[in-house]
Each structure stands twice: as C-alpha cells, then as structure tokens.
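re: ur question from earlier - yeah i can do the single chain one, its not a big deal. heres the input i used so u can compare w yours
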Amino acid sequence: MTIATIQTLDTPDGPFTLLVDDAGRVLASGWTPDHARILGRLRPASQPATVVEGDVAAAAAVSAYYAGDLAAIADVEVAQDGTELQRAGWRALRDIPVGAPLTYTEFAAALGRPRAVRAAAAICARNAPALFVPCHRVLRGDGSLGGFAWGVEVKSALLARESSAR
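and the output i got, formated as tokens:
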C-alpha cells in the first residue's frame, strides 16, 4: 500500500485519529492526536509509504457511535495484517455484542482455544483499528478492566457507554 489518509476527530473520550487506506478500510485508529503513534500500531511492512491528511468516510461512523448509534462501527471495513490466529481473533472481537463483554478466558474459548488465554490477550494488544475491532470488550477473569492501549479511562468510558445499550 502506498497512500493512506489520516483524520483526527474530537470525541468525548479525547482526540480520535483514523488511518484509512485508499479502499476506505481502517488500518489503525485510537484516542490520540499523534499520527506517529497511530502509524506505530502497524507492522513496519504494513505502513503506507505516504500519509495525507483529509476526511475519511469512517469518521461518520465514529460520530454516529458517539451520538448513540453504537452499532455504527460494526459495518466499517478494516484491514489487518497478522497470523491466521490473529486474524481469526480480530474477526471474533467484532462478534462480541455491544454491552456484553467477555473475559479473556471466554474470548480464548470463542476462538476454539480455551487454554490460549495469553494468546487471546496478545490478539487484543495487537489490535490496530481500535473501536472498529472492539478489543475494549474483553476483560480480565475477575471482571476488572485490564489493559488498553489507549488507557483504562477510555476503556471504562466505552464500556459504560455500551452497557447503557442493554
């Protein structure tokens, strides 16, 4: 891939930046205005040669999500480069219903690998298009938040917003 577009939006959880390829697929996103941090979520071989600032269609889904349409992010296409297990995990994360988080153990079981809890956690940690692939919907076994690349405050706010949908 040679050219990608980057856009930063204001959200109630802070600046949210999206990196999108020329096909409109989200490559990486997160709660930061720092473009280098967003690019750093991608493997070096997956980073675009050129990044331009501009408006991206996926930004409308982010705005809709924050306006209360929590399902708006579900149909946004993403592109992620990883192992077969990682790609399966990222697809499975998109199947976690709004307001119904799983534990890492439950997520590992959903992948058909109930003993691979650390691998399940690593899949979440390596997820580049945050929000669109909702790794924030996976919790520690005791129900506590655990880690989140964009901070536990953001994870907590997302889960609180989504719990009101149930």
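Residues 152-163 form the longest helix (12 residues). not sure if urs matches, ping me
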